[in-house]
Amino acid sequence: MWDDNVDDPSELLLADAVFNQTSKVDFMVRKAEPADVPQIVKLINNETRRIFPSCDAGKILEKSVFSLVLTDAAKLSSIMAHASFSDVPLDKNVNIDGKLWKTHDDLKSINSMNGLFLVFFVWSSEVLPDVALQEVIGNAFLTCTLVDYIILEMPDVNYAGTFLFSSFSQDTILTTKNKKDKKLLIFDKNSLYPQMKIREGREHDLDDLSPLMRISTSEMEDNFSKSYLNDLIAMSDRNNQSVVAEHKSIAVGMLTVTTDINYNMLNTFFQLEPFHGLYKPHIRDELNLAYRHADDGYRVCKEDDKKFVKDEYEESGDESDKGSFTGSSSSFSSEVSTARGTPTHGAEHAQNPTKQISEVFPNSTQNDSIIPMVQSKDDMPLRGDELDPLRPSKMTVSDELGRFPPEAVALHEQLRSGKLELKDIQGLDVEMRNMLNKMEELTARRDMELRVHSSNFHGRDDVCYPMAIYTEFRPIYNGIPNALAIQLCVIDKKYNIRILDLIQGAFLCFPNREYCIITIPSGSQVPFWLEYFVRVIPRKLSLYDRELYVLHRNVFNCRLRVRPGNEQDDQKVRKLIETLYTKDKILNDFVRANMANTCGNQSGLYSFVALAGPAQQSHIIGLIILSDYERVEHYQINYNIDNFIYADLHEPCECAYVHHFVLNPVFRRFAKKILKEVMRYLKKDVLYHRVYSPYKETVKINHQTLLNNLDDWYVVPPRPQINYMKLGLTGVYDQDRIPPPEAMDTSESYSLLLHSRKFTYDIKAELTARIVFVGASETALACLEKIISAPKMCFLHLTLISPHGLPGSLKQDEIRSFMFPRRGGPSLSIDSEGDWLDRTGIQVKVNVIFGKVTSFLREQKVVVINRKDVIPYDYLVFTVGQQFVRPDCGEVEVVDYHLNEFIEHSIQQDEKKREKIKKPLRRQTKKPKNVFVINSEMEAAIALNYIRTQLPSFKRQRLLIHGACLESYCCLNAMLRMGVSPERIVFIIRPEFHMDWEERRAYKDTTKLREIMMEALKTFNIKVLPNHDFLDWFLDLRTNTVTRVNFATPNESEIVSHSCFAYFGYSQHRISDEFLSALLDAYITFDKGISVSIDFKTNDEKIWAAGTCAAYDNKLVAEKYDHPFYNSYEVGHLLAVKIMQELDPTKRSYSVMKTGVLKPTIPQTLTQPLVHYAELPDGWFYMHCRRPGPYRKCCPQDCGCDSCDGGNGTEIVTGSTDRKNDLTQRYFRLCLDANYRVESMECLSKKRFSPWNLSRVYAAHESLLHNLVERFERGEVQCLYNFFQQPWMSAICHDRWHDFRQELAQLYASFCIDEDLKIKDFIKAYMDNLENMEALQVDANIIRRVIESTGLKRRIERRFLEFLRFNRNALPMYARPDFVEKLIEERRLSPLVAPYVTSLYM
């Protein structure tokens, strides 16, 4: 089995020399960043220009597939060398796919899949070029693990530079297409990192292997001691083997594997269907597939299947087949990778007769078929295990809806489409209204189930978009086991690149096994060599605290290649996609692409297939269909593409759109290389893909497809959009200076995924920690938005628990949208918060679980949902926020007529007892049906549906709205728009408008808003009950509805009772009592909120909290920094930063190196304003924007600004809310602080305005706003709305304007007038001098003159022009240099302009 031949001594000496040189840790290697370009340019010398024809470092860095820099280990900021690699040669006459290359003796084994070209290399004078090149090439092989050759093209055949004397390279001559000779320098990975000698383990290897294991804990010492290694080697038998990697007669690595695996347990916890359950195929295997489509009902994929339904919780094997499981911990490092706890049977294996299978070990070392059998539903875009099992005996919602009469179904369709008005419902009989109500409940339940099923998915390897509901079917396997498990893996860090040699040796021990598996603990760092493995998706609600990775043996010699598809591939493609529900669409596009190729490809649709195996017996393992895409400008304007690539360096013709990407799960790790090959063939640099929300109607129009490598794509965060319609651009500028339609159209909402050539060999830090968010508040959504778009980290387990899922998951309803005010954030720039959420990509990467958290088990690290389901976690994040709750009335007043009559009759003779029963009997009941507290869209939809269907049945009862706040005004507006008669509405105001919860909230009503709302209530003749608070209510047990509500004055001197049709409560706003009880039971510290530290951590290190539910610990004395006083969107982004800093493995080691650094004791200052926007009754549009932080109670306008407090601020007011004074009724109040910066704004208008555009004015100096104060004093500003709706506001409304201001602030802080005097110090000294009497003699314009004379003004102007040029797509209205030159040229050529004749003036 083993080759004991001694290696060539000369090769061993060469390898020793190479290893001795590379073992010197003098350099640090990292990926090259765009910020390194200035230093790289300084390293370019004449030798570099001679070898490489192009020296544009920025463009090369953007176009290459891999780039790295070498830095000094002592000074990380100093770049010693840089190299960029590409899969395309520098010389266009060199064709790597040509016949000349493939027939060359030295080059025929090199192709674009296993080779790279060194296209740019620079080095510092402090290091020798050959040493720098050796370090660069060596680290390139370590990073690009699938690359075996690196080629450097010489400028001419006679080149005799220093690179030719490298000890691990060879040169060769290639004849190019133009019949010229080309010298190539070839670097072979085997020369630098020679293959290790693999043999079986021996006991004397322990002396070499033990020092490689870093025993960091007592547990590791017990589990991985020298005696344990001795036992592993001594126990080598039929089911356990140990292989050792040897170099120079020294053991440098060891791998121990076993075949004693609990397959039943693995199939219970993980989706192993793509790998045939890790069993050999058998003729009696039950691999039936059934799924139910949302539109077409039930379908069976294979007609010959008979048994296609199996209960989700039914065990597929014998009870004795379960075996046992050892769950020890594991640890991984660069030197040692240990994997204990592999699911094995252990002692019970010998006692289990069903597991004593006589396996046959064939003599051949490879299987006949290179493609494993894949007959599983896991190739589908939605996992069946996430859904409830299909039960045919149970009547479905569709069946129940079909039982209603046709006329009721027709009326219900009109009701759902909005064609049936309230007056039409009132004319129906009671029976028909009851049927409509029942059908609406069934439809809502069906929509909820669809959302529950379709939302339980995230960035998985085999999952993309939910288009159908699939029932779970657990296949039954009858074949023999087909896997081996890694128990322990340890290797010297110098030989990490040769880890595959050990795994291949393990397969040689078990030639009949096709899969190699390993489990690692959740939350641990993923070893680098698991890049070759495929991560298996865990099943829903899996409590197994480990990650499972699988490797197929044919990955080693698969001979992967990519070519364009053709008609001969039709049958093989059909077989590849036969189990996919989108197979018809994929096949149609594949046929269209083939027809386009034969007709000259005018449609721009391309198809490519990925093949594995020998050329004569190759199998299609993947299919890619893509097209040229011309909407690149739309992506640049609406999404932050520049966070990942420099869009200006990529022409539109270099971008493509991926329609379909289907790949065999076994070859999942080759996905990026396959995409690279496709881009190389089509000469593309960037790929895009859109993901539409499954809740939107556009899903039926815009086809949803598959992406098997979803984790390899980058989720591009959306950008806020300028409302150009409110800037007066039409009729003022020419067509070429008006923003393109892509910038003005925000109707289409989708998540954008991006992939580029330069990301081919990027390795994201895969984080296996299970992070569970509780609550779908704005803080949670902002945090998730930032986390999923992190460019260097990939979170594999993100879960969001919410009672009603994500906002915007329901069908859009105009009336429902009126019930909620909109908070400050980028979502203000588009129509709705749901559309913004669709753009973030949260529904793609996050697993959403519908449920209410009822308890926490901190020791077990689980969250209990709905008192029955359990969700495990490694890190828990509380972002529940504050909510409106039912009013505090002690015990619920219950009206039980029969019980009360019995009591009255039984105690007539006892007057004392009679006095005690003055009110009906009280007992605990569930929530009344007509009591509503609106905190989510689902609750609003339920309330509106109840009112719409039940209002005609109640003629005299009142609709009660309790609590005067912005939300209650929005609710009143929605009721009026829905058609509720104003005479039936009662608006109850608490004493003196006092809301206890507003003291701990970022917003409360201003005096102006209250006045306007009181006038609006009077206009609509709505009954107002001022100075009253809730007392109690009466509940009818028969209908579970509140029939009457009592309100009282503060001292209960007056009690008012109103009959109740529906009650909306807005008086209490806090953390829900049930969640608070769960917190206290788990001993989470709570005081005014969940107590957190500076890092947002609670008293449990594994639990974070942020948002309006959190408050800083009292020992920090930071009450004014509490989260309720600040922008929730900004708090969410800061929470994401804290989480990524905590979990980023690349920063953990760096933070450990820091010693003696004191942690901050003051919370970070947040600066984004607090913005609230709402549509109010009587046609009012309201916006309030103010500085973050607690309110100033002394402010008479209740807006908390300095100008209203009689301070040094300035107040500017235009317009009026009184129609007598202002016919347009456009009130605008703007407050400036003592430094003349905008501090707050209050807008009340009968005409719609853009809240995003106006909110961008916050914190701007009045001089930046065209000298607003001076113009207002001169009477030039009559209306602030019109003033801020001018074209010059476009740049201020831009989302990158704030970054530009920070850039200028840094310039001011660093600019020096002299060598030792900075301009900021000069200005500060000047301002201090103004307090002296001698200041009158100081020139008032000296600062302006200094700025102009030192060149600072010119640099600022240049920066502004660069800002306009960089954002020219969104800001075309500004005059660019080319536009000014064009105007000058037109003026010169115009006959209307007289030429300047100098002779007349001589």
Protein architecture, described:
The protein is of the alpha+beta class. The protein is built from 43 helices and 51 strands. The strands form 10 sheets. Strands 8, 9, 10, 13, 15, 16, 17 and 18 form an 8-stranded mixed beta sheet that branches. A hairpin with a 3-residue loop joins strand 11 and strand 12 (297-300). The model is unreliable at 1-25, 215-221, 289-395, 448-471, 890-903, 909-924, 1149-1157 and 1396-1402 (pLDDT under 50).
How do the helices and strands line up, and which of them pair or pack?
Layout: H1 9-22, E1 27-31, H2 37-42, H3 46-51, H4 57-63, E2 66-72, E3 79-86, H5 99-102, E4 115-123, H6 129-143, E5 149-153, E6 169-175, E7 181-188, H7 189-192, E8 197-200, H8 206-209, H9 218-223, H10 226-234, E9 240-247, E10 250-258, H11 263-269, E11 290-293, E12 297-300, E13 336-338, H12 348-351, H13 397-401, H14 406-417, H15 422-426, H16 430-455, E14 468-469, E15 483-491, H17 499-509, E16 515-521, E17 534-535, E18 546-552, E19 561-564, H18 570-576, H19 583-598, E20 605-612, E21 619-628, H20 632-638, E22 655-663, H21 671-682, E23 686-691, E24 714-716, H22 741-744, E25 751-756, E26 765-774, H23 778-788, E27 793-802, H24 814-817, E28 822-823, H25 833-840, H26 842-845, E29 847-850, E30 853-857, E31 862-865, E32 869-872, E33 875-878, E34 883-884, E35 894-895, H27 897-906, H28 911-916, E36 931-932, H29 937-950, E37 958-962, H30 966-978, E38 985-988, H31 1007-1019, E39 1023-1025, E40 1029-1036, E41 1041-1048, E42 1055-1065, E43 1069-1070, H32 1073-1081, E44 1090-1092, E45 1103-1105, E46 1110-1112, H33 1128-1143, H34 1145-1153, ...
Parallel strand pairs: 4-5, 15-16, 22-23, 26-27, 26-33, 27-29, 33-45, 35-40, 36-42, 37-38, 37-42, 38-39, 44-46
Antiparallel strand pairs: 1-2, 2-3, 3-4, 5-7, 6-7, 8-9, 9-10, 10-15, 11-12, 11-14, 13-15, 16-18, 17-18, 19-20, 20-21, 21-22, 23-25, 24-25, 28-47, 30-31, 31-32, 34-43, 40-41, 41-42, 47-48, 48-51, 49-50, 50-51
Helix pairs in contact: 14-16, 16-29, 23-33, 39-42
